[in-house]
Amino acid sequence: MSLQVNSASAATKSKQKYSFNKLQKRLRRNVGKAIEDFAMIEDGDKVMVCLSGGKDSYTMLDVLMYLQRIAPISFEIVAVNLDQKQPGFPEHILPGYLDSLSVDYKIVEEDTYSIVKDKIPEGKTTCSLCSRLRRGILYRTATELGATKIALGHHRDDMLETLFLNMFHGGKLKSMPPKLVSDDGKHVVIRPLAYCNEADIEKYASAVEFPIIPCNLCGSQENLQRQNIKMMLQDWNKRFPGRIESMFRAMQNVTPSHLADSKLYDFKTIKASGKPEPEGDIAFDTPEFKDENRSVQPAQSINIVNLTE
Ligand code: SF4
Questions:
Q1: CA separation (Å) from 196 to 31, 122, 145?
Q2: What is the mean pLDDT of residues 270-288?
Q3: What keywords sit in the KW lines (predicted)?
């Protein structure tokens, strides 16, 4: 009897290990692919990895440190946490964790919490001022550290939520790009988790048992509109499997001539060419859609990705 129980638990453990390995490979492959697709990290870069103490930034640091070990290029990593002096912030957790990794790091202490509390009336949302202050401090820190890239832990689902937020509330077709120049024009910001989905990151963070710092220390509710969009996307994902992946592919596959932004496409000057146009409109035909359920990554792999196998 006890022999049976032991072999059953050994089988469960090996199954768990197998699915953890698959999850880890998937995350590493997706990060490697995003880095390659957008040339996020180049030889000689110093990457400032912004660490909040949440699941996303821990996962990003973990995967980037792995890729640093196996990549054919050489780059430095420096982890940076901004201690915003929120009451109850457990300031020992991140230094303890980062020491255990032997990674270069800096904890920046700036009391943005008091500034925000002072400036924003009670009951009003504090996030926009808080994140503006945080952004300025992180850019300054990147300059001080001589970082050539600033890595943020936003993932695919953050990008989709932002796309819908901008459409629903801002009247813009705009998301969070995987790579951009900072608004002060001085830094290149990258999002290495751009191809990773939140569910994978959640599972990974809990399996690895990262020392997560709660994100509600400031007492602010996460933006309600973003929460609503998140719920809408989660609901779609349950009811229409594959829709999230399809929407993300759409962000990578834009046809300006089939939208309506005259700044992006010169509609005024178009003329019939007399030649067949593969991208032309089939005007009166009903469009046909395949019921696609593919994952975000195209079949082709690239160097850094192959090394993660
Ligand atoms: S949730 Fe709190 S810490 Fe985060 S941006 Fe908003 S105010 Fe700042």
A1: 7, 36, 28
A2: 81
A3: 4Fe-4S, ATP-binding, Cytoplasm, Iron, Iron-sulfur, Magnesium, Metal-binding, Nucleotide-binding, RNA-binding, Transferase, tRNA processing, tRNA-binding
**b/e map of 71-85 (b: 16 or more CB within 10 Å)?**
beeebebbbbbbbbe
Residue with CA closest to ligand 1 atom 3? 218
CA–CA separation, 237 and 282 (whole Å): 30
As for ligand 1, residues whose beta carbon falls within 6 Å of it are 126-127, 130-131, 218, 220
Annotated binding-site residues for [4Fe-4S] cluster read: 127, 130, 218
- Residue ID of nearest Cα to ligand 1 atom 2: 218
Which domains does the chain carry? 21-255+295-303 (3.40.50.620)
Q: Ligand 1: distance of its center to the CA of 59 in Å?
A: 20
Whole-model pTM: value is 0.88
Task: Give pLDDT tens digits for 18-48.
Answer: 899 999 999 999 999 999 999 999 999 999 9
Report which residue type is found at 134.
Answer: R
CA atoms of 62 and 70, how far apart (whole Å): 13
Query: How far, rounded to the nearest angstrom, does the alpha carbon of residue 69 sit from its chain's CA centroid?
Result: 21
The sheet with strand 149-151 has its strands ordered as 104-109, 76-83, 46-50, 149-151, 188-190, 179-181
Return the minimum-mean-pLDDT range out of 15-19, 147-151, 188-192, 305-309: 305-309
Output the furthest CA–CA distance in the chain (Å, rounded). Answer: 81
Nearest CA to ligand 1 atom 4: 127
Centre of ligand 1 to C-alpha 128, Å, is 8
